[in-house]
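Trying the structure run again after the queue cleared.
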Amino acid sequence: MKRCTWFVLAGSLLVVLSIIAGGCITIVTPEPSAPTSSTPADSFPPTNEPEQEGSEPAINSFIANPHNINSDASSTLSWNISGATTVNIDQGIGTVGLSGTIVVSPTTTTTYTLTASNAAGTAVATTQVVVSAVSPPPIPASLPIVHSFVAEPESIVAGGSSTLSWSVSNAYSVIIAPVVYRQLGPIAATGSAPVSPSVTTTYTLTATNDSGIRNETVTVTVNSEPVASPALDWAGTWETNWGIMHLSQSAGQVTGTYEHDDGKIVGYISKNLSGNILIGTWSESPSYAPPNDAGDIEWVMSPDFNSLEGNWRYGFSGEWDGTWTGTRLD
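Done. Tokens:
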């Protein structure tokens, strides 16, 4: 009996069929099948993984320069962004480009926020401008202020007197020379002092503070004693609208008292050579000082020397406040 054996090769599969058929061996290789049009030869099965998306924006820089400013100054914001489709800065600035600068002038400390966005997400950065208040300019130091420095009257006869008056501020020392007045430390705004120079004298007021000194001067002129008429004499007892008044006269100076509030008179004869005009001061209790208890007088004696009429006022300047009349009793 003849035995035959077939070997069939199909891909990597070897099929061996043994058939007893007279001892022959036949090897059969099958033809490869043609590829179909729906399955390319170089294709790979599809996967279920999602497609890779883009990355979020990158904020490379966002700064304020300078970081600290005064309230009357400005700062510059600058930025640089990559990969964003929109860029926005708050505080009223709005949409900006991927890079740029802008000047800002906040009046108070302000934080600025930059927001960069694209389809993948959003990136945020902040920068701050610190604002300091502007200090007011320093008040310049000033010298003392001498509002006034006067002598009343400015002209007297020998033996007469004048009153120096002053008003000063912003000083810690006031001196009047020749030595009339001296005060250290905080001083009153106003002051006065009597003077009786024997010769014409210039008085200097010196006011001092840390910034320096200020000087003012006033001159009291002393005239020769007038020659009064032998019949003219202010001395005596007078009945006045301020009560009984007693006067005495020494050369060109007249002094005395009167009843109202224990009043006192100091005057001098200097307005004219006839001596019938008396200029001076009145003072009363309790203080015997201006502005309420002392002031000026100016009287004129009648041609018969038996009456006087004149004016008075509070203090040593301004309008007259009333009249002064009198009749001689002896």
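The chain has a mean pLDDT of 80. Worth checking whether this holds up in the mutant runs.
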